[in-house]
Amino acid sequence: MNSVLLLLCLIAFLAGFVDAIVGGGGLIQTPAGLILMPQESIAKVIGSLKIPSFSGTFFAARQYLKKVKIPLNRLLLFTTAAFLSSYVGSLCLTKVSNQFMKPVIFIVLVLVAIYTFTKKDFGQKRNNSNKTFSISTGILICIGLGFYDGFIGPGAGSLLVMAFISLLGFDFLEANAHAKVVNLATNLGSITLFAMKGSIIWSVAFPMAICNAVGGVIGSKLAIAKGNQFIRTVFLIVIIGTLCRLGYDVFLH
User: Fold this and answer.
1) Mean pLDDT of the region 106-111
2) Which domain, by its residues, includes 107?
3) Which of 94, 120, 180, 221 has the highest count of CB atoms within 10 angstroms of its CB?
4) Rounded Cα–Cα distance for residues 95 and 32 (Å)
5) Number of alpha carbons in the 13 Å side-chain half-sphere of residue 49
6) How far apart, in whole angstroms, are the C-alpha atoms of residue 64 and residue 195?
7) Do 184 and 178 form a contact (C-beta atoms < 8 A)?
């Protein structure tokens, strides 16, 4: 078990590092957890992995909030909507299969990758300076992707970044800051549900949480230092990786 835990901790560090830059850490962490803990139920594995996801996102969010200021009312509205919808999504996960959603998400991610690759200025600068900021649109994003994170999970952070850029006109750095805070709330919503059901292996979750947090701090500092172009490149890599993972689930598994 010690060697398995060590490997899980290394994976958690890498997941935290990638997730802090552009989201998608679950793409690395979730399959690894399912492979390395085959004796545990899927609910216990997913529930346990939510703890390191939360810790990494927490420290990454702290770094971003030093650079990007988010109004308090927006912060409270977005996180409340995300928390509640993620809780409901995780509750649905314990009752029904999420397999039917994966082909839909696969198609969405293909479109996201094509759009981001072909539109070179996507997320490179703010596009909302001349229009009224839509709180209602932001809340709808948080509800929809909060539910997705609780119900399916992988790629939620990347989809949040995409939504905040395309629908609210943020640049990559600003979108990332908002996505981290919202992702923090979605993780907390899922953790609340899984903890209530006793589906968290704390002896695995805590060491992974420390490693994920270290990766999150390093990744967020690098993203802030390198700027929008660097984040855009990593965003494309993560989206393509998510596509490969979902494509395997949909067509080969």
Assistant:
1) 68
2) 2-252
3) 180
4) 24
5) 30
6) 28
7) no
Residue type, 124: Q
Residue type, 126: R
- For the stretch 52-69, pLDDT in tens is 999 988 988 888 898 888
Global model pTM greater than 0.90: no
By the 10 Å C-beta count (0-12 exposed, 13-18 middle, 19+ buried), 202 is classed as: exposed
Please report the sign of the dihedral spanned by the C-alpha atoms of residue 154, residue 179, residue 222, residue 125: positive
Closest CA to 17 of 42, 53, 48: 53
Question: Residue 168 to residues 20, 91, 176, 217: CA-CA distances in angstroms?
Answer: 21, 29, 12, 26
The residue count of the chain comes to 253
Supply the pLDDT for residue 237: 79
Query: Count of domains in the chain?
Result: 1
End-to-end CA distance of the chain: 27
Q: Can you say whether the dihedral through the CA atoms of 4, 9, 12, 14 is positive or negative?
A: negative
Q: Which of 56, 41, 89 is nearest to 219 (CA)?
A: 56
Helix-strand-coil split of the chain, %, nearest 5: 80, 0, 20
- Given a contact cutoff of 8 angstroms between Cβ atoms, the answer to whether 52 and 205 are in contact is yes
